[in-house]
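Quick entry, no commentary yet.
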Amino acid sequence: MPRRYVREFQAGERVEDQVFLISSKDLRQTSNGALYIHVVLADRTGQILGRVWQATEAMYGTMPEGGFLRIKGRTESYKGNLQLIVEAIRPVDAATVDLADFLPRTEHDVEAMWERVKNILREIKDPAIRALIKQFVLDEKLSECFKNAPAATQMHHAYIGGLLEHTLGLLELAKLVVPHYPKLSMDLMLAGLFLHDIGKTAELCFDTSFKYTDQGQLVGHVVQAAIWIDQKAELAAKELGQPFPHEIKWSLQHIVLSHHGTYEFGSPRLPATPEAIAIHHLDNLDAKLHMYFREIANDPDAASSWTQYQRSLETKIYKKDVMGIRK
């Protein structure tokens, strides 16, 4: 049968002999003590929650997390969300699948985006910040990973090249916004936006699926980026022939450490400089708008004016383009 993608599924249809990537799995109990499997299945167009009733520990053990399953089942609507009731499963050798069917990719040219990022960073005037950013850009292993990494496993820009696309969008946004606030440092803004998520190159892996590395789980991208700034500042100091300015380094580390905005969302520090609060809000704006547009585009019910409830956004989204500009 020709492959159908998650985005195409409707409630009440059969799914026959389709291969999915296992994004996550969990063995759970019903209220009466029976075992069932809660599994998130994915392809390049999105994810769907799967449930395997009357499951066993042996069945659970055959499901390779981060691997692939061939599935038979049926779709249904549950509390306004689509889910897949799995009736039969069979593990699939990863070597036999086309990863392009399962790992979403940016629609933009990666090399063109990377060149644009570098051109914007060349506008930084402060010699110390320029020398620091140079150490990151010339790190070939880091740069190659930066060009291909997703910005997240699920939330926003969760696809190959997503981190680069998100970062470039923020740099372009800064060039529009910062001139309106002349007391903001454009140099700190550009450098801070480039560095704010760079730790995700170590936090996330994206070979057969998007997941957290051990380093990502133990350290996290926020702290990792702050560590790298300290290390790269030492290298920049050698190039400059003088100590790297401590307050500039601390300001950039603070931007990274505070860009999530609140302790609740993982910020070790709250934004305490104008540049830090500006970067937090620009980052949040780009991420949230991306999520809204994605859910509108991917909603399976074309007849409805509303998307399904989005738990991460705590709302349904009104899909109608009342001004006729989102073609």
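second:
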Amino acid sequence: MKKAWLSILMVVGLTLPLVAGEASEWKIDPVHSSAQFAVKHLMVSTVRGEFAEVQGTAVIDEGNLSGSKVEVEIGSASIDTRNERRNNHLKSTDFLDVEKHPKLLFKSKRVEDLGDGKLKIVGDLTIRGITKEVALDTELSPAIEAFRGVRRGASATTTINRQDFDVSWNQALDAGGVVVGDEVRITIDVELIRAD
């Protein structure tokens, strides 16, 4: 479930002041990044979880944001919902099938600069070997110099339908409705380090 999710998610240095037209390389700091998701349970409550393993790279062209690129990998087995039994079910063939599909992947196709530190990152999200296009609404933080490097953070969100990725397990409720909702809200929080 989720998303990438992607994400997911991760051209956080796009507005860092650099020489116009000069491309720069960035790496996601996995220690300070994660991908969260939220989905309805029994139609009445929301279950939240996260993927702890997020890594990836970005190539950012300040003079031509549409030429910037980002690739992200999320370890599907790193899913955690604070319940071991539920975690194991989500890792099984009913959901993510982590043995056969150990990675959730996101690869950007284009970046739209919406101004005021906001971006739309459109790209391909792959879950269980199925690839669909998604759009990430992203908000950037200011860049800072810290720990002998230049860093920037971002929060990106999107909503996917898990059925689109063959994450289809469910059970009907006697009173109507189902155990697990189809819509999955994804939030990606990342920290990028510029590779000087």
